[in-house]
TrEMBL record:
This is Uncharacterized protein.
Length: 62
């Protein structure tokens, strides 16, 4: 399975969940947004070595 397509699939599902969660009650929406934020942050941290060259040109190449 291609990693790029896998990430796009996960992102699509997360967006659909996020849109659905906006119809939920206040506390549920807050918890879901918090969970999604932590998930996004952890994905960025885990993939930082791949993301970094996009923002900082000429960095270490892997």
């Amino acid at each position: 399975m291609n990693t790029q397509f896998n990430a796009i699939g996960i992102a699509t599902v997360a967006i659909i969940f996020w849109i659905t969660a906006q119809n939920a009650s206040g506390d549920a929406r807050t918890m879901f947004n918090l969970f999604l934020g932590v998930l996004l942050l952890s994905m960025v941290i885990l993939n930082w070595s791949k993301i970094q060259p996009i923002f900082f040109k000429g960095g270490t190449k892997n």
